[in-house]
Write a structure and sequence with these properties.
The chain is mainly alpha-helical. Among the domains are: 2-84; 148-204 and 257-360, Orthogonal Bundle (MetI-like fold). The protein has helices at residues 2-12, 16-35, 38-44, 50-77, 80-84, 86-116, 139-145, 148-164, 167-178, 185-197, 200-211, 217-226, 255-280, 284-292, 297-308, 310-325, 329-334, 346-355, 362-394; strands at 119-120, 134-135, 227-231, 237-241. It has a two-stranded antiparallel ribbon with strand order 1-2. The protein starts with a helix and ends with a helix. The mean pLDDT is 83.
Length: 395
């Protein structure tokens, strides 16, 4: 009994030498990581330009961060506290590395962006690596309030949000149509899902070509109804149209709607897959019971199927709203915010002011980013609250 108690004590006691060495490695790695900068790397490795030393300095910092994380992990798992509470600590151990990198590349930049929104900064440092910005308080937000392009971008985001929600019912309709056991149905499902697989940039290019008033798909369809071709005596083919084909992306009244239509194509495919997955989990006994009660058609869908698709609907709505608010790729690919800024959205206008047409307005771009973040934060907070409530009900 004494030997068993001694063995149990050894299993749950701290490995003091290993913990001490690991913590020492952590401190050394953090010390080097804090002190490494571009100038040190430049002088040590005799680089001629600061730009040449930036990537090596970054790689050194990342390597030291990984070493510190590994050493910290070893130190933690060899403490008596961890050995006595492995079940409680294990999830946090696995999450720790992801949380560290999430904090470095997401959380910290969010607060940096908010702080930059109160400054006037061109995005550059002086020759000594000193920040050249100027604190101006709420001036960027005052300018933003009077900026018509900002309000145009905000209104376009609202349009994206409203029209993008069409992806949810259309995706549901396609899922109901494809949820059949017929020959070749997997091929049809793959074809409908294909738009979501390809890049957003490729989708934008495809629709930009389709909208072209000279040779695009819209022009061809338009010509079938409103244009006639004739051959002159030389043999040249000329086309005369009673009404000219529309230039969708060149018209500031229709360009935004054309881009949203392009964005809906892959989004519908994604919602369709979510609903197909949900339909596979629908309880067949409930459907059979409803059929015995003569439920069919709309009543079957509304009272039996849709309640069981509530989780899929929730995810579809969440993903669609987030996609609408962070829309960027389509605008950048198809119009770059034109014509005359009529298709700008907040994400693209932020980018444009920081590194595009308004290059050097990092503070102003950060103010736009902060407004967009505040809008998304409200929705994401509601989403997390709903998830928490569902978890509580599930317990």
């Amino acid at each position: 009994m004494a030997s068993d108690a001694s063995l149990q004590l050894n299993r749950t006691s701290s490995n003091v030498p290993l913990v001490a060495v690991s913590l020492l490695v952590v401190l050394i790695a953090i010390g080097f990581m804090v002190n490494i900068n571009v100038d040190n790397v430049m002088s040590t490795f005799e680089f001629e330009k600061r730009s040449e030393a930036r990537v090596p300095a970054f790689m050194f910092r990342i390597s030291l961060l990984i070493i510190a994380l590994v050493a910290g992990f070893i130190a933690i798992i060899n403490t008596g506290l961890y050995k006595k509470n492995k079940i409680a600590f294990s999830p946090w151990i696995f999450l720790s590395i992801g949380l560290v990198f999430f904090s470095i590349y997401v959380i910290i930049p969010i607060f940096q962006s908010i702080s930059y929104s109160f400054t006037r900064w061109d995005g550059l440092y002086d020759v000594n690596g000193v920040w050249t910005g100027e604190w101006i308080g709420f001036h960027n937000y005052i300018v933003l309030w009077d900026d018509p392009k900002f309000w145009t971008s905000l209104w376009n985001n609202v349009l994206w949000l409203i029209l993008f929600m069409l992806a949810v019912p259309i995706g549901l309709g396609l899922a109901l149509f494809l949820n059949q056991t017929v020959r070749g149905i997997r091929i049809y499902k793959s074809l409908f899902f294909f738009p979501f697989v390809i890049s957003q940039v490729v989708v934008g290019l495809i629709f930009a070509w389709a909208y072209n008033p000279d040779f695009g798909l819209v022009a061809e369809a338009w010509g079938f109804f409103f244009c006639e071709q004739s051959v002159n005596i030389v043999g040249n083919v000329t086309t005369k149209c009673s009404i000219d084909p529309p230039s969708i992306l060149g018209d500031e009244d229709y360009a935004t709607y054309g881009i949203i239509a392009a964005g809906l194509w892959p989004q519908i495919a994604y919602c369709m897959i979510l609903y197909l997955t949900g339909l596979n989990n629908v309880a067949h006994d409930q459907i059979e019971a409803a059929r015995l009660d003569n439920a069919k058609g709309w009543n079957m869908l509304r009272f039996v199927i849709l309640p069981q698709l509530k989780p899929a609907t929730f995810i579809a709505v969440v993903v669609t709203v987030i996609g609408a608010l962070r829309s960027f790729d389509m605008v950048a690919t198809m119009t770059q915010g034109g014509p005359f800024g009529s298709t700008n959205v907040l994400a693209y206008y932020m980018f444009d002011q920081a590194v595009g047409e308004g290059v050097g307005r990092y503070g102003y771009g950060s103010a736009i980013a902060t407004v967009l973040f505040a809008i998304m934060l409200v929705y994401i907070s509601y989403f997390l609250f709903r998830m928490y409530q569902d978890e509580k009900e599930g317990r």
